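Appendix C reproduces, verbatim, an entry submitted by the partner laboratory led by Prof. M.T., so that reviewers can inspect both the input and the predicted structure.
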Amino acid sequence: VQLQASGGGLVQTGGSLRLSCAATRFTGSRKTMAWFRQISGKEREFVAATMWPGSTYYSDSVKDRFIISRGNTKDTVYLQMNSLKPEDTAVYYCAASSTIIVGQIRSRSAYSSWGQGTLVTVSS
């Protein structure tokens, strides 16, 4: 499985960005896809996930500001980030798994495939 993330960049506080992640060589559509982020000096943390057939999950810090969604092919996942804050500055990683259960959805170790990360910088 290969995951290719894109869409990061520099944005001002209150602005928006949309991240994209495309999965290739991943058979089956019933996979969970997620976004994590890693702030410099801290551990990688859960941001959002979408689990087949359509459940979504968010961390408390981004709930009501970020929206995770799938593309029409189901092999692409997006993260629409609105009302961005300086504390959202991080490298964002997409992840995927075909075997995850709901109780594991926020756990890094539950995901078998990871993208390379895309940097999001929010200026104050």
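The two ends are 37 Å apart (CA to CA). Additional entries are available on request from the coordinating office.
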